[in-house]
Amino acid sequence: MDTKTIEIIKSTVPVLESKGEEITIAFYKHMLGTNPELKNVFNQTNQKRLTQPRALAQMVLQAAKHIDHLEALLPSVKLVAEKHRSLGIKPEQYPIVGENLLWAIKHVLKDAATDEIIQAWAEAYGQIADVFISIENGLRDEVMEKGGWEDFAPFKVSDIKQESSIIKSFYLKPESGQPLPLHQPGQYISVRVRIPGSEYFQIRQYSLSDVPNEDYLRISVKREEGGDQYPEGLVSNYLHDQIKPGDTLEVSAPAGEFTLQSSERPIVFISAGIGQTPLMSMTKKVIKENPKRHITWIHSAKDADKLAFKEELTKLKEKAPQLKIHIALSQDTNKYEDIKRYGRIDSEWLEKLIESKDADFYFCGPTTFMSQIYNILIGWNVPESQINYEFFGPKGDLAIKD
């Protein structure tokens, strides 16, 4: 891009800060209205909750701010590209997105969106789209080179285990009978289903909850309560109520950047609710490959009935004395003997449990919980390079705003 185009893009930063979310809401509504086939890809719950438009608004804003050095956005781009590859986003869909994004800018800003501004953003979008397409093509090639598969493949549900009152584990084996490429602990897969009575496919992403192996993939799914306004339980309830051993599910190859980093520092896992799932895979991997590495796992659940993996946690502690598990429950049900605290995880309790702050921290759970943990760690001056976390859904911002 030339200097003039860059200046024009940067001049739109103030309006994107005030109108960005309005633009992206209009964008999704218009695009999905004129291209309804894309409803097979985009999570409609995220649309209704506005999490997807908000995430896109932040990415567009950051692109405008860093238009003269887009390489600063590469970590965020890689995260989104991983999700796109897992969802089956295709290069030919990018022009559709660009056309509708420019329409939304003009629709919201009206006369303020001059031809000059629209032309500058068209050029900028073209370059940004090329970056995404290049990275996603590379990810697809990498998956295939490692013995994976493109888009979705049929997997047989070989077993289902009730892990808690609201969580079930689904063991998935490829119908091809071929050995699976080993995924990285902490990664996720996309599951695509067509629910009876629904016109479109529904795709949801679930963390892999067991140690990598060549035989099966395991996801552990929380039944979401949902409701008429935000039907987030559409797929999870379908899996819980309708899917039985022997059924087939369509599954993408594993994806994701929330993986174990190369280090010998102690590990601290912190989770809440279904945030246990990626950390289960990580814990088993560390114990298997580095049995002397110290692990502290601090987990919060609403009550003992909703605490998953009780048997596995007990066996892991017996197998690995260097693993210390601390459970906090919001409600006192007296049904699980290993409860260390009744109430929420807070900074004071964490400090009592964590032997050294020079550790690698991994955490996952609801966004409000992760924001709390992130800001505690930043307050302790833990380096960003030692802080790792996973969003369930579109990526957000965990930092407390002044």
Topology of this protein?
Layout: H1 3-11, H2 13-34, H3 44-48, H4 51-65, H5 74-87, H6 94-109, H7 115-145, E1 152-162, E2 167-174, E3 188-193, E4 202-207, E5 217-222, H8 234-242, E6 248-252, E7 267-272, H9 276-289, E8 295-301, H10 310-319, E9 323-329, E10 339-342, H11 347-353, E11 360-364, H12 367-379, E12 387-390
Parallel strand pairs: 7-8, 7-11, 8-9, 9-10, 11-12
Antiparallel strand pairs: 1-2, 1-6, 2-5, 3-4, 3-6
Helix pairs in contact: 1-7, 2-4, 2-6, 5-7, 6-7
Task: Give the total of domains.
Answer: 3
Query: How many helical elements?
Result: 12
The first-to-last residue Cα distance is: 34 Å
Radius of gyration, in angstroms, nearest whole number: 22 Å
Give helix % range: 40-55%
The ordered string of helix (H) and strand (E) elements is HHHHHHHEEEEEHEEHEHEEHEHE
Identify the strand order in the major beta sheet: 4-3-6-1-2-5
Largest sheet: 6 strands, antiparallel
Instruction: Tell me the name of the CATH homologous superfamily of the largest domain.
Output: Globins
Question: How would you describe the shape?
Answer: globular
Low-confidence stretches: none
- Under CATH at level 1, the class of the largest domain stands as Mainly Alpha
CATH architecture of the largest domain: Orthogonal Bundle
Question: Using DSSP, what is the number of strands?
Answer: 12
Structural class: alpha/beta
CATH fold-level topology of the largest domain: Globin-like
Strand content: 15-25%
Arithmetic mean of pLDDT? 90
